[in-house]
Amino acid sequence: MLWRARQFEFTFPRPTLVMGIVNVTPDSFSDGGRFLNADAAVEHALRLVREGAEIVDIGGESTRPGASPVSEEEELHRVLPVIERLVGQVKIPLSIDTQKPGVARAALVAGASIVNDIAANRDDDVMWRVVAEAGAGYIAMHMQGSPQTMQTSPNYRDVAQEVESFFVERLERLKNAGVAPEQVALDVGIGFGKTLEHNLQLLASLRRFTKLQRPLLLGVSHKSFIGKLLGAEATQRVPAGLACACWAVEAGAKIIRTHDVAETVQAVRMTEAILNQHNPWTGRKD
Q1: How far apart are the first and last CA of the chain?
Q2: Which end of the chain is less congested by CB atoms within 10 angstroms, N or C?
């Protein structure tokens, strides 16, 4: 299985990719304000790369439940200086975490290689055509509603079945917009329009999504469902996030998105070493 993001190619089976998070925002739930300054954001990104991140995901708009949207101009003001400076300093793909086609286009021009789109539930194909024209990687995330409405009253008959159907339909629409399957990775959207029970059901069902033959990304780092289950504040949720990451790797996930890169790299490499005793890389089904 191949995942292509402009000049970068990842061929699976291979070790799990760890994606480090850089929030250039004042209001993200976990680290809002810490890296709003471009110098601080670049320094943080470089530290994540040293810790083992193979992708850096840069976002300029908080997508926590109820977050207020920001203008395209403000989002560009936050992320472009970071991307422009990192492109010359790192040799790994940079991802732009955005819902806005204009921001995605400018970030790709600046040197980003992946668009991480929480709003893959969009009705129009403008974002997808931007991705197609650039040959960029694309992460299609499932979300019910929008960040402003998603946690108002999430409702599913069968959350795993509905997310799978969404992915099948999106892959077809992406293809029709010119985005090749090899460009697409999938994210079940833990915490985006889901209750605690929905999140647990999706985690328990991760393996079913691997049959779609696209890399599966999991992002649970510091998320509120962990706090609801365990009573832990955001800064105390690292162990639970690592447990989810290890579970996801065993289930066949290929990308782990996290704030805690060093800890996650150790956890997933140990998980892989154990799995590898019974299922060598050359024999794994992907």
Answers
A1: 6
A2: C
Residue 151, domain extent: 15-277
Tally of domains in the chain: 1
CA angle, 183 then 271 then 113, to 5°: 20
Task: Please state the three-class secondary structure of 253-269 as a single string.
Answer: CCEEEECCHHHHHHHHH
Domain-located, residue 8: no
Strand partners for 257: 19, 219
Q: What is the CATH number of the domain that holds 174?
A: 3.20.20.20
The pair of three-digit structure tokens given for residue 212, joined into one six-digit string: 């779609």
Cβ atoms 125, 177 nearer than 8 A:
yes
223 is annotated as an active-site residue: yes
Beta-bridge partner residues of 20:
56, 258
Is 99 part of a structural domain of the chain? yes
Catalytic: which of 257, 269, 284, 285? 257
Strands 137-141 and 2-5, bridge-based pairing: unpaired
Could you tell me if 126 and 104 are in contact, meaning their C-beta atoms sit under 8 angstroms apart? no
* Mean of pLDDT values over 223-245: 93
Which residue would you say has higher pLDDT here, 15 or 38? 15
- Confidence grade of residue 285 (pLDDT, cut at 50, 70, 90): very low
Task: Kindly state whether residue 9 falls inside one of the protein's structural domains.
Answer: no
CA distance 13 to 280: 10
Catalytic residue from among 78, 194, 223, 237: 223
pTM, full prediction: 0.90
Interval 126-132 mean pLDDT: 98
Mapped onto helix, strand or coil, the DSSP state of residue 92 is: coil
Could you write out the DSSP letters of every residue in 5-44?
Answer: ETTEEEESSSSPEEEEEEE--S--TTTTTTT-SHHHHHHH
What contacts 35, CB < 8 A, 6 or more positions away? 22, 23, 24, 41, 44
Closest to 82 in 3D by CA, of 43, 119, 121: 43
- Tell me if 6 is assigned to some domain: no
